[in-house]
């Protein structure tokens, strides 16, 4: 993964806004020795060690044992930042693949790349202000779900509350950034002025980004439901606030994959229709000339015309077979299998589970 903040091209760009502290943090992580993923893994292990170490000390968890539910919250603390890093890296590659279709000058391309992969400080502050009340409501609605227990020490509960706040704020920030990128991708597709129906790689460029974002949003829900099922043999229940948040995440994940690509779908349909109409007009013009030659009994001149009509028919059939979906079939199957399962689990948990209790 590479950082937009440290890119040489980005340094030459007149930045529309300064990078946020989140982007500066990711840039700092990039400068560390080793892989960025190694850092995120190490950070997750540290959170696990801190969370469980405090609980071992106060006796709320037996020393040397691990609570699967606390492992979820420990890993979720760093999850959003790691996924944001991944999505930014994917966004840069997607934009590069779409570059030929974009047809923009270098300066405009760099501006789009910066906006696609860099958060503004104002955006981060606003999203933090919006997310903090949700974090407070989530903690108040189900404190035990975040590891805040009566038999835990004050230090452990304070750590759990801070961890819950950081996890909720960062995850809502990840959702908000996905929505922000959704709008930018739609703008990029609309502004592209060199769309070619035959360049399928550029049509599918952003589907990799949108499907990864969609899966990343629902993965914690799937993982949590899986752990709950393993622990108690059935899917548990959540607070009303958490249920609303889960429903929101599921809807957003579906929107994140599909909605940004609908603009490209319309562009491809328009381009396909234009090319087919153009082929039909040429076929009609050639057929008219052929009829004139036949009526004039100039049969020796019809061979080339017949060959041209055959080629135009072949072109039209080829155009009709070209897909206008801005994703590959494998991408759609991956989305349905990855996102559809958590949706089913959430529905069973929320509505059907009560009938089997």
What report would you give on this structure?
Helices cover 77% and strands 0% of the residues. It has 357 residues and is mostly helical. It folds into two domains: 8-262 and 325-356, no CATH class; 274-321. Helix 4 (68-97) runs antiparallel to helix 10 and helix 10 (207-232) packs antiparallel against helix 11 (240-295). The model is unreliable at 2-11 (pLDDT under 50).
What is the strand tally?
0
Order of helices and strands: HHHHHHHHHHHHH
* Helicity level: over 70%
Count of structural domains: 2
Low-confidence stretches: 2-11
Number of helices: 13
Overall average pLDDT: 82
Helix and strand composition category: mainly alpha
Task: Please report which band the strand proportion falls in: under 5%, 5-15%, 15-25%, 25-35%, 35-45% or over 45%.
Answer: under 5%
Report how far apart the termini are.
Answer: 46 Å
Shape assignment: elongated
Q: Cα-atom Rg, whole angstroms?
A: 27 Å
Largest sheet: none
Topology, please?
Blueprint (H helix, E strand, L loop, with lengths): L7 H5 L8 H11 L4 H23 L9 H30 L1 H4 L3 H12 L3 H21 L12 H38 L8 H4 L3 H26 L7 H56 L6 H20 L7 H24 L5
Helix pairs in contact: 3-4, 3-8, 4-8, 4-10, 6-8, 7-8, 8-11, 10-11, 10-13, 11-12, 11-13
Please supply descriptive tags for the structure shown above:
single chain; 357 residues; mainly alpha
Gist of the model:
With 357 residues, this protein is mainly alpha-helical. The protein has 13 helices and no strands. The chain has helices at residues 8-12, 21-31, 36-58, 68-97, 99-102, 106-117, 121-141, 154-191, 200-203, 207-232, 240-295, 302-321, 329-352.
